[in-house]
Amino acid sequence: MPDRPFLTTEDLLRQTLGDISGLHTLDIGAGTGRLTQMLAQLGATAVGAEPNPDAVAKAQESYPNIRFVTAPAETIPFDTDTFDIAIFSLSLHHASDMDAALQEARRVTKPDGRLLVIEPEMPDPLHPVVRFIVDETTICAQAQAALDEAVASGHLTRTATLPFADKYRMETPAEMIADLVSVGSGRVLKEEDREAFETAFHAAHHRDED
Question: What is the pTM of this model?
Fold first, then answer.
């Protein structure tokens, strides 16, 4: 994708949110808790909400000093106007009801708070590889449409959009398969697609220095 800066997640948070020291932040769809921990390292009081109880247990074990709750994005167990910042990091398109998830994020965020939504723009450079396991082209477009509708209806105000590129580091096809199937139940690489998957993987693979 031309003319897009490569940003690490930490650089992205700093560039979009600025100094978050002392702010109350909510990571919606926290998964492994990596981003929640990053928010805490940047000085915020961070909480993670994740619908998968197994993921919550692993995140809590990995980051015992951070609070994680088991909850879907559509029903967040916090009072109205609790957080300064709410974040969907590659998680909005996983919500069962994206419109409801955005409304709930708005509810638990203070009137002068901010909502950061990080979503893939499809088709991305990984699509020729990932499509053998999961094709999220349609669902990611639905997430963008849900955001546009929330802005058009006046529920949210879009203050900025930042197109950027990130690096997805996988050294082998097997490592990438394991990572992709771990995200959601039902994901599998069919044996008849393995050769094509591996060919696409090597075609898309670049060294960091390149």
Answer: 0.91
